[in-house]
Amino acid sequence: MTRRWILFLPLGLIVVLAALFSYALLSGVDPSEMPSALEGEEMPAFQLSTVQDSLDFKTVEDLKGQPFLLNIWATWCPSCKWEHPYLNSLSQEGVRIIGVNYKDERDLAQAWLRDYANPYELDLYDPNGDLGFELGVTGAPETFFIDSQGVIQYRYQGPIDSALWQDELKAVYENLD
Amino acid sequence: MKTSISPSLIFVTLLLLGLAATAMAEREQRYFDNDSLRDRYEQLIWELRCPKCQNQNIAGSNAPIASDMREKTYELLHQGYSDEQIINYMIDRYSEFVTYKPRVTAGTVWLWLIPGLGLLIGAVAVFMLARRSGQQGAEPISDAERQRLTELLEKDRDAS
Amino acid sequence: MLPEYGHFALILALLLATGLSTLPLYGVLSGHGGFQRSATALTWGMTFFLATAFTILVVCFLVDDFSVRIVVENSNSQLPWFYKFSATWGNHEGSMLMWVLMLGGWATAVSLFSGSLSQELKSAVLAVMGMISLAFLLFLLVTSNPFDRLLPIPPGDGGDLNPLLQDFGLIVHPPTLYMGYVGFSVAFAFAIAALITGRFDAGWSRWARPWTNMAWAFLTLGIALGSWWAYYELGWGGWWFWDPVENASFMPWLIGTALIHSQAVSEKRNLFKSWTLLLAILAFSFSLLGTFLVRSGVLTSVHAFATDPERGLFILVILLVTIGSSLLLYALRAGQIRLAGEYRLVSRESFLLFNNIILVVIAFMVLLGTLFPLVFDAFNWRKLSVGAPYFNAMFNFFMVFLLSLLGVGQVLRWKRHPLSDLRPLFKVGIPVALVMGLVLPPLITASFNWRVWLGLALVFWLLAGLVRMLLDRTRNASQPWRALRRAGGSFWGMWLAHLGVAVSVVGVVLVSNYDLARDFRMAPGDTVSMGDYQFRFDGMNIVDGPNYQSDQGVITVLRNDQPIAELHPEKRFYTVQRNTMTEAGIDAGLFRDLYASLAEPLDDEHQTWAVRLQVKPFVRWIWLGSILMAAGGVLALFDRRYRKASGGRS
């Protein structure tokens, strides 16, 4: 009969749903993982002083020329402290890291860099989180991978460690041009 | 917290004195030029999703980023941005994820199309079923229907 | 040793469930009476051991047995005893055990209160419920054993229950909700049993109907309790968020609502049987789907359980096997159902079918919206969110149709209703509805709002239908009161439930459109005004709770300079989890709630605070209406024909 196939519709639907769910479970889709809205976009313009010198203003032009990591950090952020030694060693390996001191206080940031060493070629002071907001930062630490033209290629949320760098992020960094 | 008289306390006190001086008129945390602006603000922070939280709008979240986004929404409203411009401003920075009201695109249009079509098809089906059922009793059956009836009866006999 | 006994009881329950899902079914298929009759004893045995296991788990929580992993993770010695008690189901493992226990409870109830049901059908029903128990017992024992121990050295104290859950809401909301979810398994089992045995007469519909009503009433109450809990506990006065977890409970409710209506047609008119069977399968399928969504971690939610992909996969397999095989059985067998009876477009049958279509479309709309971000994610397109603005707009759109049809549909007779007979309802009802919708809002607040007009007009249209139903009942009766008394449980149940719909709609419409909310900066002594009310901030107290410390604000509310209420919003700091919680201060009223919550301190002494104040008109009506709906569902159980049916044999 012509109408018989209708009876199979609900079954079809549940099969489609099950396929979707198993794909989601098995491929490890993480609903909380969020790519940056700025991937493929130029880094937003800014004018900020450095942590070290409140009169030394920098703009986006000062960053361009070579690929770099833009690391959002703060002294109030425990994961940043955890990540910091690895940033130091990356910096020693020659990875160019620009810091953005995010919603922090200048004297605390200076003390931190004195106590735990400074991996940053340049450390921008962003006390109100304005640059952070332009970058779509939701918290610290976050690290943006930016090429020599100042175009954002990738964003990682959370602390970076050696395993993560070797497995995933190193390749991203080396592909920047 | 550490010192007995913190600068922020002095600031707050001065602020409160200042407010008291301008009569007790408005102690609202945010000043709105008019009620419609406030309504729009409330609507926007209800529609924007906190990007860092599990599943909350920025009105209901205590996360620092939610508070920043509320602040920005308020600022942009007072700079004369339209609701759509504000939503787009947030989307440009925090991706489409931040709006609970999906934008209509080729991919998302199904959100409205499927339920709408469902209702339409369902309604037509009810009409047709009722008509068919009603006609069965009301009028003498046509030849085609008689044939179908015979088919059905035969099928029943087969089944049982 | 005690936890091991609990674990052992679970294993015994699993064995009995295995027996229950096979032996009676063999009896049914082979016609062997003894195997058929084994169902009752197996059900009782399984339920007994489930109850034993659950009791032992409760005891573990009450006596602070910190060798049990979930006690450590979800309790603390400082926790008041009633929260220790409810912490039993404030976690994945314990709540799953409660879920299975309730399944056993429903099965036991079926075995006890189905006097004149044929042994064959009864055995098949119990066997199907046994299969579901078996699947979930396996799930419990394999992936989520509640009696897991931390040995040899158990921790000295527990990590405490999530402060959000330390509330009366946790004591009542999950059990009620689960009773509803799991209760739909009875209608499901009846449907499967009918498909297996091939007996689709009106009988199964009559048998399944009271069970469906009961489950539906529980689910209605459970959802309402959840909404009320979120309203006062989450601290900012929302009562429905369209969060995936809420949607997971709302979808089975919508399908269940369609089901109780379609069962009416199947019972009374022997029509739409194939559709009713499908709804019975779907209602429980949506319950299972909800269980999956909440526990698998595929979606983000404010109140999901700690999730684990392995568990998700296990439930997915259960889901696929249970629902897939049921729908396959349905697809193969339902074609045999004969169409019988006739009806016109203007008839109760047609309008109930319209009601079903709309409710099912809404349920699938909710499913679509809930899963849409996941689809985008899976295809790696982009991240997006579908939330309250979408759901509200769609839901309201469909509700306009549903309520318009409900107003007239409820007065219609079976088969055909003469149009001329409806003329008075249209002539009086529509103008009255439109005028009342227009006139009433200015009495509440000054502003006109077309949404309120439309909403209230629909409410009065619905009420017009309810009045008409009473008139129809009494028109030709010499003694009207007697006629109404004799109308019976079915009639009054429906009447009350539909009145509940009207009451809830009033609440939803008014609180959504006329609530006031403002953020203030308040120091002791400050007074602010909002609407007709003045709020005076009298200062802060420090309150010591059993496991928390609290900054408590005192806010006096005045109206016309007369104090009418005192609100005590709190900011609680839970010392074990080092977690801050906002407790709203609420003055509840039939026509408005006054709602205050502390946002954050604005000075170091915690004297000046950012305070959010709200006036929420008619918000209680939302839950009041839900209670009426649930009461209506229960009242229908007391209809004479059910008593006669079950009393006949005993």
Describe the structure.
- The complex is a heterotrimer of chains A (177), B (160) and C (650).
- Chain A contains five helices and seven strands.
- The model of chain A has no long low-confidence stretch (mean pLDDT 89).
- Chain A is of the alpha/beta class and 177 residues long.
- Chain B is mainly alpha-helical and 160 residues long.
- Chain B has two domains: 92 residues, Cytochrome C biogenesis protein (Helicase, Ruva Protein, domain 3, Orthogonal Bundle); 50 residues.
- Chain B contains six helices and no strands.
- In chain B, helix 2 packs antiparallel against helix 3.
- The N terminus of chain B is likely disordered.
- Chain C is globular, with a radius of gyration of 26 Å.
- Among the domains of chain C are: 164 residues, no CATH class; 103 residues.
- In chain C, helix 1 packs antiparallel against helix 6, helix 10 packs antiparallel against helix 11 and helix 12 runs antiparallel to helix 13.
- In chain C, strands 2, 3, 4, 5, 6 and 7 form a six-stranded antiparallel sheet that branches. Chain C has a four-stranded antiparallel sheet with strand order 1-10-9-8.
- In chain C, strand 9 and strand 10 form a beta hairpin.
- Chains in contact: A-B, A-C, B-C.
- The interface between B and C is large, with 56 and 65 residues.
